[in-house]
Write a structure and sequence with these properties.
With about 750 residues, this protein is of the alpha/beta class. It has 4 domains: about 5-140 and about 165-220, RelE-like (YaeB-like fold), CATH 3.30.2310.20; about 255-345 and about 470-535, 3-Layer(aba) Sandwich (Rossmann fold); about 355-435; about 560-735, P-loop containing nucleotide triphosphate hydrolases (Rossmann fold), CATH 3.40.50.300. The chain is about 40% helix and about 15% strand.
């Protein structure tokens, strides 16, 4: 007979419990950590007072004299900590807790029915008199009358909540209710209330989290290991939560995110999703998952890369927090341009050449064309053709350039045009060589050629290559993929062999800020069928801000990095907030009053929680001076981010990528600035390029709007941006009439 008393005790924290623990005082939170340590050693210890609650799977145990832990027993010596409550709350109503295995997801759901009831009836009681008799509610149709109980449970709604759902009559009822129920139930109800059909909710909300196998609603051990049961998985994570030093993303993933991050793929995989949906979080968990599968060693067989060097530094720090020093040491974390430079330097060629950025390259093109007297093509066109087509398609000869496809470029060009362009770019390249300078695009192209040569030698050597020459990486994970150029992709493809889990790519083309477009299949990265996933829940911003941000994109189409079309269909938030503000002024000088007034209305805006986003650098200088004149600390957002954490951060839309703030002002959202008036010259001569440039400017506005977590204000002077539809102004006007705040 097996002695079960010798088996280790498993104690995990359910995701809903960590919020309650962090709301405790530091001393009480520390007591929870001490409790879990004692419980694992001996749950029957006298001081813990473990007792079963009314014949259920629920147990209570003593944490302190005042607090009790509510535990769900899911197997022999296996418990989930589902709540930490004051002792009076635990024993006054033992029937208040409902628990089940969701028959759609297979995950464990624990519901405090008393809290749900309070969320519904609380609005009827005067705040200063809890014992007052509730006013008789005005009869109105219940929000979910159009749906049967069977339909709701088929979508994944927790069955014990059905009676309460039938008593929801107003938006406020629903929003309060959603704060108290399992996340899937809240997501389903909010999506239905937002106007999505049953079939749309089934496709967008339910299907991504549905269990892969039939659910046994009596198998609690299996349910505790189901991705839909969001729990801590190790002691260090549990300790870090209780020490208030661990972000929730490091422990609790949405079931959709966990599926994507941990799934084994037969080849390359791609994850898309709007801002704040956790693409970077998924990328980090994917790296951790891949690192845990590695054989012991000291090398770095995993590459984690991105375009932005600041983001690369952030990824390095966050992976260390998530995976620890040992696993992180197996991962090469570097931005793509630095990686290319490293490869070129290893080859020992061109190491002494000076690198110039895109702005400097464009200036050199202008000077070069002026010196040549060339008027047929402008500097922007030639710079882009050289970077994206000649370098991007690895065309090293005139004949190769004549054969390449010009994916993503504007108006067609003739054969004579190509001949002229090749001659001009060849002369321009020689001029750069003579001066000892080159661009990041050239470095990437050189690195790609070196890696392609290396790959060819590996393949030619066959099985013997493993002893002398091998691919640089076993796995590559790319974050913010929409910002990489075709040259970058050719480089990456050459650095890992085609095979299971070779490349994992996250990105959102709605946030593309650079002139980089590519179809991944053209560079040897093939993603088919179920290897493409989309995240749809935003964890950053409120439903109100999200609604505004998506409306700013109306009228544009965006690619999916492989020749198809990407959408934000189903993009949603479970967070509730205030309606964004929209205001205009006659002049830029008068817009100053709107900016200052809004910052003062928000109260303490100098603690780094607020930011002002503007279209150009000149506007940055103006706003900073205005704030200083008003006695408000102002901090510029530079290429390396804000120079310090406090103050009101001010920067261009371009600089806001990757940042987030509690409150954001978008200023200068005027026609001629957003979009830039300079792109009008392409409207007739190059309509395709005009649409591309317009889409990029719209993306910048979209990115800026989605940096805000709680509050968003959009201002302009003169005529407002054509990207701001009149319907948004009408929504703001309604809010103002209903008592919303104004500047």
């Amino acid at each position: 007979m097996t002695d079960t008393s010798r088996r280790p005790v498993i104690l995990q924290i359910l995701d809903r419990a960590d919020k309650e623990i962090l709301a405790l005082s530091r001393a009480d939170a520390g007591a929870v950590y001490n409790f879990q340590s004692k419980f694992r050693q001996n749950p029957q210890a006298h001081g813990l007072r473990l007792k079963q609650l009314k014949g259920s799977r629920l147990y209570s145990a003593r944490v302190t004299d005042a607090h009790r832990a509510i535990l769900l027993n899911v197997g022999e010596r296996h418990f989930l900590l589902v709540s930490v409550r004051h002792r009076s709350d635990v024993y006054d109503d033992l029937d208040r807790y409902s628990y089940q295995i969701n028959r759609v997801t297979g995950g464990i759901e624990v519901i405090d029915l008393a809290a749900v009831g309070d969320s519904i009836v609380g609005r009827l009681l005067p705040a200063d008199d809890p014992a007052a008799v509730p006013e008789k509610p005005v009869k109105a149709p219940a929000l979910f009358d159009p749906y049967t109980d069977q339909q709701l449970t088929d979508l994944g709604v927790a069955e014990p909540l059905l009676p309460s759902i039938r008593r929801l009559h107003t938006d406020d009822d629903l929003l309060r209710f959603a704060d108290c129920v399992p996340a899937l139930t809240a997501d389903i109800l909010l999506a239905l209330h937002d106007g999505k059909t049953y079939d749309e909710v089934l496709d967008l909300v339910t299907t991504p989290v549905r269990a892969d196998e039939p659910v046994d609603t009596d198998d609690w051990a299996a349910a505790s290991n189901n991705p839909a049961t969001q729990v801590t998985t190790d002691d260090s994570a549990l300790q870090a939560i209780l020490a208030e030093s661990f972000a929730r993303w490091q422990v609790f993933l949405h079931p959709t995110q966990r599926k994507v991050a941990n799934h084994p793929y037969p080849g390359s995989a791609r994850v898309s999703g709007g801002p704040g949906t956790g693409k970077t979080i998924v990328a980090l968990h994917r790296v951790k998952c891949l690192a845990e599968r590695l054989e012991p060693g000291k090398d770095k067989p995993i590459l984690l890369t991105t375009f932005n060097r600041n983001l690369a530094a952030d990824l390095r720090s966050r992976l260390l927090d998530l995976a620890g020093a040992d696993l992180s040491a197996r991962v090469d974390i570097v931005n793509i341009d630095k990686l290319a430079s490293r490869i070129v330097n290893e080859a020992g060629s061109d190491a002494k050449r000076r690198v110039i950025d895109e702005t400097a390259a464009l200036k050199r093109w202008n000077s070069f064309l002026l010196e040549l007297g060339e008027c047929r093509f402008d500097a922007e066109f030639l710079n882009a053709e050289w970077a994206h087509i000649i370098l991007g398609q690895a065309a090293t000869t005139r004949d190769e350039y004549f054969r390449v496809r010009r994916v993503g470029r504007g108006k067609p060009i003739t054969r004579d045009d190509r001949d002229t362009i090749w001659q001009i770019t060849e002369r321009f390249t020689k001029e750069l060589d003579r001066e000892g300078v080159w661009t990041w695009r050239q470095i990437a192209a050189r690195a790609a050629r070196l890696e392609l040569d290396r790959e060819a030698r590996i393949q030619a050597a066959g099985d013997t290559a493993g002893q002398t020459l091998r691919y640089r990486y076993q796995h590559i994970v790319v974050d913010e993929a929409q910002d990489l150029s075709p040259t970058h992709w050719r480089l990456l493809r050459a650095m890992t062999p085609v095979g299971p889990d070779d490349m994992f790519i996250t990105g959102d083309t709605h946030q593309r800020l650079y002139d980089n477009q590519v179809a991944l299949s053209t560079v040897g990265i093939n993603i088919r069928g179920r290897r493409s996933s989309r995240l749809t829940i935003s964890y950053r911003t409120t439903r109100e801000i999200l609604k505004v941000a998506t409306q700013l994109l109306t009228g544009e189409t965006y690619d999916d990095l492989d020749g198809g079309t990407d959408t934000l269909n189903g993009y949603r938030s479970l967070l509730h907030g205030v309606t964004p503000t929209f205001r205009g002024a006659p002049t830029w000088a008068q817009e100053r009053g709107l900016i200052i007034g809004q910052l003062r209305a928000w109260g303490n805006a100098s603690d780094g929680s607020a930011a002002v986003c503007v279209p150009t650098r000149d506007y940055v200088n103006d706003v900073i001076q205005w704030l200083i004149d008003e006695g408000i600390q102002a901090v510029e957002i530079g290429p390396d981010g804000p120079v310090r954490p406090d103050g009101v951060h001010v920067g261009t839309m371009h600089r806001f990528k990757g940042l987030e703030y509690q409150r954001v002002i978008i200023a200068g959202a005027s026609d001629g600035l957003v979009p830039r008036r300079a792109i009008d010259r392409f409207r007739n001569d190059d309509p395709k390029r005009y649409r591309q440039e317009r889409a990029r400017d719209r993306s910048r506005l979209f990115v800026a709007a989605t940096r805000a977590r709680d509050d968003l204000a959009v201002f302009w002077h003169g005529s407002r941006s054509p990207f701001i539809p009149a319907s948004l102004l009408q929504q703001d006007a309604v809010r103002s009439r209903e008592g919303g705040s104004e500047c």
